Amino acid sequence: MSVVLLAVFWGLAFLVMLNDIDFFSLQDLFDTRELHHEHIVVVLFFCGIVAAAVPLIAGRLQRMEN
Q: If pLDDT is split at 50, 70 and 90, which confidence band does 54 have?
């Protein structure tokens, strides 16, 4: 389940990255005056990691209670 969630979020991040005309630039990433594709890619990347970790942590906590 965690691998699937990670693949979905990272796949979406990759599609957003491909949709950007200048692909991926650090200048746009650090530009906070307006929202860029790079910001969405970074958020999807980290949300994927969190979404993949939540079921693993919940399963481990459930095993510790039993």
A: very high
Query: In 3-state terms, the chain is what percent helix, strand and coil (to 5)?
Result: 75, 0, 25
Q: What is the pLDDT of residues 9-25, one digit of tens each?
A: 999 999 988 887 777 78
Nearest Cα neighbor of 15 from 36, 40, 32 is 40
Supply the range of the domain harboring residue 54.
2-65
Number of structural domains the chain divides into:
1
> How far is the C-alpha of 15 from the C-alpha of 62, rounded, in Å?
35
Go through the chain and tell me how many residues it has. Answer: 66
Give the C-alpha separation, 10 to 31, whole Å. Answer: 22
Measured distance CA(44)–CA(66) in Å, rounded: 34
